[in-house]
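re: ur question from earlier - yeah i can do the single chain one, its not a big deal. heres the input i used so u can compare w yours
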Amino acid sequence: MAKKVNIGLVQMSCTSDIDANFQKATEKIREAAQKGANIICLQELFKSLYFCDVEDHANFSLAEAIPGPSTESLGTLAKELGVVIIASLFEKRAHGLYHNTTAVLDANGAYLGKYRKMHIPDDPGYYEKFYFTPGDAPGDGSPVTEQDTDGYRIFNTQFAKIGVLICWDQWYPEAARITSLMGAEILFYPTAIGWDVNEKDPIINEEQYGAWQTVQRGHAVANGVYVVSVNRVGREADQQFWGGSFIANPQGRLLYLAPHEGEVTHVEELDLEKLDFYRTTWPFLRDRRVDSYRPILKRFIDQP
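and the output i got, formated as tokens:
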């Protein structure tokens, strides 16, 4: 397995034209590959507008089977370009059962599997619980196979062992920790988040973006992994998606930061051999007191 890997991130705007969005994403994947990318990550729900700003049954028509036509098309593209593609899609699992899902296509075109978003928000402008059920809880801890779809996942791609989490998962250190403990060298977060255009206090906007970036950089530090967060950009309804996609190293240093405005296709080289250096310099995994963590399984620790 290669020690160095080139990561491509695609930060783009979307319209109501599904085919046009897919075509744009395809072109940007090609652009990233031309720049030398080995693994390319698209933003959350890249095929459409972020439809979760309203509760509308008509939006269920946007969902699709995974694997299905989109993964077949992206698999063909991945094989042609020799790249890994990380693609966030709206999955129809069964009648009345839908997921916010990310599929991973390997560099030979093979479908490696999917991760179903575990943490589902329900906030003004982000009514995801109306559309998505969370991924099923992990099983008995036995080794994960390509056929499994439960819980947190890693994907053994041709270039690196990667973990995929999705947007609201970003705020939960447990998700990052578990995925890292499963062997992920890089955590990818396809994302759709922005500012409420009706918010008049600029400090609130600054704090929200700062918190979003800081917590993910913290995941990189605590777990000794690289973190790649890919956000969308542009105005949709009352959301100004803030872009700001970034790549952080295992000490939280920003290797790349995208602007708040404008589409970006960026490629960054990551040195996986350095993971051992970071984890031996600050051996957080060595010093974990796993025997003391049982209280974390409670919703809240009530005191008498």
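The mean pLDDT is 95. not sure if urs matches, ping me
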